[in-house]
Design brief:
By secondary structure, this protein is mainly α. It has one domain. It contains six helices and three strands, in the order ααβββαααα. The chain has a three-stranded antiparallel sheet, with no helix packed on it. The radius of gyration is 17 Å and the shape is globular.
């Protein structure tokens, strides 16, 4: 997997949302109101809804992205760059790859993500990240194969 390809994939906000949703489902979504772990996804609202009390939980709620107004795609780009570059990672790298104009929100964002990566087991995060990335790559390649297959049948 090339760096440019993965970063280009996660620049697409729709793909990043699907990947972050998958990450949330792997970690488990807990209702803040009743504590239930049984939820279903409301596609129109882009939220989880509790099966028991019907309380809605946003995709970012209870995660490192809670309260952030930055796109979800920035999370995957930042995680990839931090894991790849380690201590050599700079905010300018993130700014370059996201195209974001202002430094300050990216600084706070990267600080939160570094803290998240330090508090959690990096190997587990890396494994989840690679698995989700592979799933996204496969899902991007699948429609092209189906179209090609349909053309061969015709």
């Amino acid at each position: 997997m090339l760096q440019g390809n993965l970063i280009d994939i996660y620049k697409n906000e729709g793909i990043a949302i699907a990947a972050f949703k998958d990450l949330r489902l792997r970690k488990g979504v807990t209702c803040k109101k009743c504590g239930s772990r049984e939820h279903y996804w409301l596609t129109s609202k882009r939220q989880f809804q509790c099966k028991h009390c019907r309380f809605r939980t946003t995709l970012q709620s209870g995660t490192v992205l809670e309260g952030s107004k930055l796109p979800i795609s920035y999370f995957f780009i930042a995680v990839y760059l931090i894991l790849k570059k380690g201590n050599a990672f700079t905010i300018q790298d993130l700014q370059y790859h996201t195209g974001h104009k202002y430094y300050e929100p990216l600084y706070d964002f990267a600080r939160k993500i570094r803290h998240y990566l330090n508090d959690n087991e990096q190997n587990g995060i890396l494994i989840d990240f690679v698995e989700i990335s592979n799933q996204q790559l496969i899902s991007l390649q699948t429609p092209a194969r189906q179209i090609h297959h349909e053309q061969l049948i015709s």
